[in-house]
Every structure is written in structure tokens, then in C-alpha cells.
Amino acid sequence: MSAMESMKNKIIEARGIFKSFTIGGKKLEVLKNLNFSVNEGEFVSIMGPSGCGKSTLLYLLGGLDIPTQGEVIFNSNSYNTMKEKDMSLIRRRQLGFVFQFYNLVPNLNVEDNILLPLLLDDKKPKHYEKDLKKILDIIGLNNWRKHTPRELSGGQQQRVAIARALLFEPKLILADEPIGNLDSKSGDEIMKLFKTINKEFDKTIIQVTHSNESANYGNRIIYLRDGVIEKDGAVKVG
Amino acid sequence: MNILNKYLWKSIIEKKGRMILLLMSISLSVALLVGTLGAIKSMTDSISDVYKNSYGDFNVGLVSSNRENPFFNTDNIKEFNFTENIKILNIGGYLSDDNAREIRIYGMSLSDFKSFNVMKLTGNDDLIDLNEDGIIISQKTSDEYGLNIGDEINVTILGKSYTYEIKGVSINRGLFTEDKKDSFVVIANKDMVSEIYGLKDLYTQEFISVDVENLEEWVNKFNKDNKDTNIIGYKLYDEEKAAAGINMVRNSMFIILAIVFLCTIFLIYNSFNLIVLERVPVIGTFLSQGATRLKVIKILLKESIAYGLIGGIIGNLLGMVFIQFLANIGNPLKSMGVEAIVDYETYHFILGFAFSIVLSVVSSILPIIKIRKLPIKEVILNTMSVQSKNSIYTFFIGITLICISTVLHYTAEVSNYKYSVIAIFSLIIGIILIIPKLVQLTMEPLGRLFRNTKGILVVVINNVSTSKLLLNNTRLLTISIIVMLMINTIAVSFSNGVKDVYGKMNCNIIVTDKSHVPNLVNEKILNLKNIDKLYMSNRLSNVFVNGNENNKMLIEAITPNEWVGWNDYIKYDNEEETLQKLQLNNEGIILSKKTANKNNLKEGDTLSISYNNKEVKLIVVGLLDSRMLGDFNLVNIKMVKEQLGLMYPDSYYIKTNDDVEELKELLEKDFKGIGTSIVTKSEMQERNNNAMEPTINLLKVFAYIIFIIGGVGVASNIIMSFIQRKRDIAIISVLGLNKRQRGLLFFLEGLVQALLALCIGTIAVFGLNIILTDYLKYIDLSLILEYPVESILPAFITVILLMLITSVTAALKSRNLSIINEIRYE
Ligand SMILES: Nc1ncnc2c1ncn2[C@@H]1O[C@H](COP(=O)(O)OP(=O)(O)O)[C@@H](O)[C@H]1O
Ligand SMILES: [Mg+2]
């Protein structure tokens, strides 16, 4: 870790996180005492075998679920002490989510899907016209603004989801297997988009992925196995 | 059972709420059908039963055709082919120590009494001797007045007092069914009554029993043959007349029933849409494992048949209760104290059962066969959308249907309103079909308007106008509102229409004179003091039009220029002018539009009427709208006097500014017991309202039932649609929708839907009222439909409350919504 990097602020930190589910009366320990932090500007990939708890971890980082034990600290604030309302506010303004199945609202058009967090925040769309245009340019869907998600290809839908995640200029983007459902060409395009967002727009990204290729777009990989961190290190360049 | 069947049976049981809703709406519909059929049967039975109880085997009555000479000699009767007969001489009187109690005395021989076999003496002393001062009373009178065999009563007849001894008590049948609150019947010795009159071998009534196939024909022939006597025969029980009364009730019940069915069909359709939608992932799995679509369709059909079967059983059981309930509420004879007779007809239940299955299958067939067209890939990948599409076709069909009903309305007069039922339903269905597009069209500008003010409204408006589920909820709400308002319209207009018949009459006391001394009654009334206004008329029923015995009309003989202002309920183009024409023309007639239409007559046409075998040619000098009075036609009383020989009026409408009760008492003193009824206007209105009550109550019961079906349907539909929309809600929650906003979202969606439904519903009812008026004309009911303005607010409140309750329920349910469970795909 270089000196310059250590001076950067911690954006999110997992402290002694445990997560277990009870299925049919049996307790299933999914995450066991995870400790790590992510700094501003990092592009982290979480990898590991299927069912090892990657998504569970991501949901915990996004405050969509709460840990059985331990805490997640975002911008020096612990989720544990936050009210539902403030949590929603953070999700709206400071976090961006991207999922494997795009998760767009089917009856809203592209534009409104992207503007959704803003609408929920009672902001006036007309003040964001410029931002919207910029984002649509970035994702290359300026001509599709009025279309509904079902009229778009998988790759296009995922780009809409990314645009939505970007709109509020969030500090942190959380992506769960963002290219898991795409062919390799579209997948590459999406990963390039993430890379641009990370580099040029200075956004912190944490993604869950299965493929080494996609992990190589980032600069750090955390390997999970049996609920613990097996390996945590920088991506070798080259 | 194979795995597919197993899965589907399991899923029926799994969704308890929906199962209950479906079974409830199917069985309520079946129960209403069975109940209505049974209740109508019971009403018809009750009426014919009253007849049987009153007249037993007798089916024809003979009376004098001349009111001033009510006595006839039975020897004069020509054509004697009847099997049995009894002769009666009747006279009226009142209890000497209580002149408010009228007594009708029927004089007959003991053997006639015995052959009038519906009347039977209670106890076992069969061998009574009905001597000159002996009488028989009913059990009812015996109980009411505490009179027993051997007791004596004093009766005043034609001003003289007589004492009678009670010799027998009979069951409350036959002539005793005429016992009323303040009058009762006694059977007395015929010779004694003859003596009071000072007559010999003359009678006022004869009942005969004739064994022929066509009684109507027989009566007509009898009357022709007896032209030269003063005897006229009539059917004791007129099925047609009885049926006409029930027909109106039946028709209104059926039309409401049809609307209930429409609601149910829509509910089932909707539920099956959801069922199919919800099972898409599983259907996808089945299809991907090689099941054919036909197989999947068959299984869903089985499910729908199962609902039909179970719904049919529950519906029939419920129907048994409904029959009792509806028959009692709709009992046309309730005011007479007659209880409804309820018989269960097996075929009603079989019909209900078949109907249940057909209803269920027909309503679910569309969503089910849609599976044929489901894109397999989308089904297997579960990327189906619940977004509404292609609404333009539906919209077009809807518009076409609305046009059809409009055309039917404008051509209604030509087709005699025959197609008005089709027009009603094509309008309702048309409105339902255009709702999605209509909602989109109204919401679009609103969406733009709110875009830059309240962000959540954009989401709300978008959901309301594009989500299939929400659009269907709006439809369901609209139908409920339409039905609620329409039933209110009918109920309110009906009771107002009837109330106004008397309400607008310009009098306080109505005297109807059926006495044999019309000259005396006339003289007394003309000499009354302190009278503001007096209207007189002579009402003739049994008037044949153009010599056709099957075409009867009612005629009111009046003095035209004194008749102005009698009753504002009746609408003329120009009352004074029209009546003046009749004043100037003794051979004129003013026809009610209804009668004119029926006989294809217009102003200036001529027609002939015959009464008591006397024929008169008349010219139509004007028309009037008699509204609920129906067949109501005016002729000049001079003509009736001169050509038909009827000298005195039989109806007097008296208006006084003095005390009404005082005047009534005065009249009663003079007229008691001679067959003249004196009724104040308010008593008349009360009687009328009592007679209307069964019909109004029936309508109300139907309204409540529809309300239950509609309300439960809407509520559960909204809650079900929430389940369906969980995923969308979860996504929005990930993006930062907090719980309070989620509740707000549900509520605002509900509110917008409620407002939309209210707007569409209240406007639609305007159109529907117009078409409904056509239908009412078709069933010969000239009712002016009044828009139920006062029901809009209650409807508004109810709908808002309903939406509030359901959105709170949905919000509560969504409290446990696990976001991650919804967004993760297993
Ligand atoms: N809501 C839940 N209820 C019960 N078990 C769960 C739940 N979510 C995840 N699991 C279990 O936790 C484990 C990790 O799941 P997940 O985080 O989705 O794995 P992956 O690494 O494939 O994303 C799995 O065994 C899964 O079955
Ligand atoms: Mg996962």
C-alpha cells in the first residue's frame, strides 16, 4: 500500500461481521468475523465459490440487511445506529446499486428509471437535465430515453441500471455480478464502463464477480471461502 | 396424481385469501341467482295461493254491470255450463257501539256456505242452523274482538240497528280473507239481507266454477251472450295482472343480477390473470421439462372447474337461505299479513350448479388460453412483464361498444326499446374496456404537471396508468361505483316516482264511492261547506279498445275545464290547452303516451271503445305523460253520462283548508258502511309506500350484496396485486424508498385510482341512466330517472375509505417485505 493511498479516507469498513441464517431450525453460519475496509477510489472485486456469502456481504455493505453481529461503518457512521429513514437517505444519495438482473422498474421508461432515486428525494428533474444527458451519453443510450426496459437488450438494461446508480454522484457503487447474465462482448463493455467510472469520475466500486477477467478491471480482490477472507490483495498489473 | 396436478392443487390451497375470494364471489352469484328464481316463484305462488284461499274452486265472478242497480236475477243468466255456483247478497254496516269498525255482510244459504269449501267451521259442530239472526265470523275476528259462539253484536245497517248471534267461527279463508284492520266480514242468512233491502230472489254476486281451457275466451263469450242482462262476468284470478306486478320486480332483479354476474366474471377473470402470471415461473419450469402447453391449460381449466363445483355447492346452500330471505323481503302481500310461501324447486338448484361451473370456466378461459401464446423463452427465464400493452385494441373495441349502445339508444323508439338490455351491457362493457387508455390519456398531462413538484407522484401516476394490476383495480372500482350509483338511482327514482303520484295531487281527502247509492254520495259531497277545490271523476276499467276483448284500457271520465291542476305529476305539453280541447269535444279522448304507443295512435286519430257492450267512437284530442300511473286516459264525463249511461262520479278529490281529520270524520259519519272509502292523502301515501317497500327493500339488499362482492373484490385485488408487485417495490426500496414513503406510495396510488374511478363512474352513470330509461320503457315503466347526486358523496367516502384500508393493509404487509429476498434470484 503506497503512502499516498493510505492517506485517502476510508469510505466503508466491516468490523467483526457475522451473519447467519436459520433454515428449517438449523443455523447456517454464512459470514464469520469479517474485517476489512475500503478506501475512496478503490475498485474492489469480491470473489469466491458459489454460496460462500458474497451477495450476503454486499447486501450488508449496502445496508439492505443487518449483520448478526458486528457493524458496518460508512463514512464514519455505523449502520447499526441509524434509523430506517436515514438509511434510505444514504441509499438514495450516497450509494449506487447494480444487480445481476438489472432490476429496473418495468413500467417506467429509461429516463424515469434513471431519475428514480431523484424523484424519491423530491428533487426537480429539470434541475438534473444536464446530468441526465451526460450520463446517457456515457452509457450511450441517449436515443432510448423514452423506451421501457423490456424494449432493451440485457447489456443496455444493465447500462441503465449503472446510469441510475451514478445519477446522484454516489460515493460508493455496489454491484452484484453485474455481467453474470450477459454475453462476453456486452460484459466487456460494461466492465469498461465501470473502469471509466472508477478512473475518470473517481467513484469507489465494490463488485461481486465470478470471472477473473472481470476482476482484473479492478485494483483489489477479496477472496471469500467458508465465510472467512481467504486472501485480500492488489491486482497484479499486466 | 401426477406431479403437475399435485402442484396445482397445492397452489389452490396455498393462496387462501384468493381461494376464499373466488369461492365467495362465485357462490354469492349462484346464491343470488337461485335466490332470485326461488323468490320470484314464491311471489307468484303467494299470489295464486291467496286466490286459492279466497275462492277455492271458483274461477269466475258475476256482478251487476250497473253500479246504480247492483242486484241481478240469476235466472236471467244465459249459458249455464258451469259445474258449481254460489249466490251472495251483500250489504254493509258498522258496529253500533264503534262506528270505526265496518262490517261487510254476505248473505248466503247454508248449503252455499258449505259448498264454498275453502271456508270451514272450526270445532266439530257441523250441523248449525243459520237462522235469520245468526252469523258466522272468522277465527281472526273472534280472536281480535274476543267474540265466541253465542255472543251477540249490534250492527247498524242503513241507519237501523240489528242484533246478531254468533253461530259459527270459520277458518280465515274464503270471503274472510277480506278481513282488515278496521273492517271484518260476517256471513249471514240470505233471506235476512233480502228483507233489509226489501228484495226477493236478487243477488249482488255469484261465484261459479267453469271447467274450460281458455277462461278468458269463455268470459268474453259469456259477456256477449248476456249482453241484454245487467250481468257481467270476470275472471276471479287474473294471472296476467298478477304476473305484470311481479314482472317489474323480476325484470329489475334480473338486470341487477346480470350486473352482479358481470362483476363476478371480471373478478374471476382478474384472479386467473394473476394466477397465470404468478405461476409463470413454474409453468416455465414445466414447459422447459417438456410438458405441453395443452397440458398446462388443461390443469388450469381443472382448477377453474373445481372453483365452479365448490362455488356451486356453497352457492346452492346459501341460495336456500337467500330464497327465504328474498321471498320474505319481496313478499307482495306482506302488508296484507300474508306470509311468503317458499318451495324449493330442484331445477333451480341444478341450474345454479350448472351456472356456477359455466361462470367459472367462461370467466377464466381467456387468461388460461393466453398460455398458448406465452413466449416460451420469456416464461422460462421469467422475464414476463406485468405492464399493460396493446391497450389500443381494447380501447377500440370499447369505443365500438359504446357507439353501438349510442346507436341503439337513438333508434330505440323504432325498435320499441327491444335492444335496450343489449345497449346497457354494451355500454358497461365498453366503459370497462376503455378505462386503461382513458386513464393513460388523463394521467399523461398530470404526470408532466407533477414531474417537477413531487417526485413520488410521478411514480404513482406511472404505476396507475401502466400497471396492468392497478388498471384492473381501477376497472373494478369503477364497476362498483357504477353499480352502487345505478341501484341508488333506481331505488331513489322509484320511490320518488311513486311518492309523487299522490304527493303532487291537489287534495287532502280522496273519497272512492263503490256504494249502490252514488246519487246520495254525490249530493252530500256537492253540498259540503268550506271546500277549496273539488275534482270528480268516474273511473272505468274493462274498457275494450276497437272491439278487441284482449285490449283493455283504463278511462277516467272528467269535467275537463275543472280538472286543471288535479295532479302536477301528470305532464302535459300544455295542460289547460289540452283539457280545453276535451272540454269542447264530447267525443274526444286524451291518451297517455303509453296507451297511445301501445295502440299506435297519435293526435287526430280515431278509435272506438266499448264498455258494457256499448260502443263509442272517439277522437284523440291530445296526449299526456302519465308516468308511473301507466294506463291513464281522460274522456269527457258528459260522453260517459250520455252514451254509457253512467250518471255519477265514483272518485272525489277534495281539497280543504280546514281540519282534514274533522272533514274525514264528518264524511265517515255519512258514508260509513255503504261501500264508500274515505282516505286522507297522507294515509294514501303511507299505504302506497308500504306497498312499495318490498320492491325497494329488494333493491337495497341487492345493492348491499353487490357492495360486499365489489368491496371484498377490490380490497383483495389490491392486496393481491401488492404481492405481485413486491419485486418492483423492493427495487424502489433499494433505491432509497423508505417505509413512510412506501405507505404514501400505496395510499396515493389508491387515492388516484379512487378519484379516477369516481370520475369515470359518475360520468358513466349519466349515460347509463339514459339507456336505462330506454329499458324501463321496454318493461313499460315510465320512470323519470333522477341522478343520485346525494349518493355521490357517500360513494366517494366509501371508496376513499376502502382505498385507505387497503393501502394500510398493503403497507402493513409490506413491513415484512424482505428486500433481499425479492431482488436475489435463486
Ligand atoms: N435470506 C436467506 N435465508 C436463508 N439462507 C440464505 C439467505 N440468503 C442467503 N442464504 C444462504 O447463505 C449462503 C450464501 O448465499 P449468497 O450470499 O447468496 O452466496 P453467493 O456467494 O453465491 O452470492 C447460501 O448458502 C444461501 O443459501
Ligand atoms: Mg450471489
List the helices and strands and how they pair.
The complex is a heterodimer of chains A (238) and B (826).
Chain A: H1 3-7, E1 10-23, E2 26-39, E3 43-47, H2 54-61, E4 69-74, E5 77-78, H3 84-93, E6 95-98, H4 110-120, H5 129-139, H6 154-166, E7 172-176, H7 184-200, E8 204-208, H8 212-215, E9 220-225, E10 228-234
Parallel strand pairs in A: 3-8, 3-9, 6-7, 7-8
Antiparallel strand pairs in A: 1-2, 1-4, 4-5, 9-10
Chain B: H1 3-14, H2 16-55, E1 60-64, E2 84-95, E3 98-108, H3 110-115, E4 134-138, H4 139-145, E5 152-157, E6 160-170, E7 183-189, H5 190-197, E8 205-209, H6 215-225, E9 231-235, H7 239-288, H8 293-329, H9 346-369, H10 376-381, H11 391-410, H12 420-451, H13 455-466, H14 468-503, E10 509-513, H15 518-526, E11 533-545, E12 548-558, H16 560-563, E13 571-572, H17 575-584, E14 588-592, H18 593-598, E15 606-611, E16 614-625, E17 633-636, H19 637-644, E18 651-655, H20 660-671, E19 676-680, H21 681-734, H22 739-778, H23 789-815, H24 819-823
Parallel strand pairs in B: 3-7, 4-6, 12-17, 14-16
Antiparallel strand pairs in B: 1-8, 1-9, 2-3, 2-5, 2-8, 4-7, 5-6, 10-18, 10-19, 11-12, 11-15, 11-18, 13-16, 14-17, 15-16
Helix pairs in contact in B: 1-8, 2-7, 2-8, 2-9, 2-21, 7-9, 7-14, 7-21, 8-9, 11-12, 12-13, 12-14, 12-22, 13-14, 13-22, 14-21, 14-22, 14-23, 21-23, 22-23
The structure holds adenosine-5'-diphosphate (ADP) and magnesium ion.
Adenosine-5'-diphosphate binds next to strand 1 and helix 2 of chain A.
